[in-house]
Amino acid sequence: MDLIAQLTQEHQDYVFKLSTLAEVIEGIRVNGRGDYFIDAMDKLLKPLTVELDDHARREEDFLFPRLLERAPDSPVPVMIEEHAEIREKSASFGRWYPLWREGDESAYQHWADAALDLRGKFSTHMQKENLILFPLARRVLRADEIRQLMTVDDR
């Protein structure tokens, strides 16, 4: 599997995780704290903070530079700006959720808002990458270049 295929698959995984996140936030809003909700949130924290940042970094380090060389007028600069916005929401979620988890009720609205903003920004961004950027990459990069964009697991 090349990097583009892996990133596309990860996008689908994040859509599922972000949908779960929205459902859990609604569950907490309606029902209050509960072990089920906290366990679900704990499982989402690392994927939606650390791992999401790793995902963006692979795009920025391996795919974006090659696209800028071959298609200087591509939407890569916009994607980089959106990565910064997504990182900001992810970091806010990662900062406020643990405070709430440890009992600071005032932190709930901060992390819930950041998480829902993250969901919206990522969903829109992911569609641009899947529908515009990745097909562009497959058109402007040679097959051997795409093969060289190995997945993390292959390195």
UniProtKB/TrEMBL annotation:
Matches recorded under Pfam families: Hemerythrin (PF01814)
An annotated GO cellular component: plasma membrane
Name this polypeptide is given: Hemerythrin
Gene3D superfamilies in the cross-refs: nmb1532 protein domain like (1.20.120.520)
Organism name: Sulfobacillus acidophilus
The Hemerythrin-like domain, residue ranges: 3-137
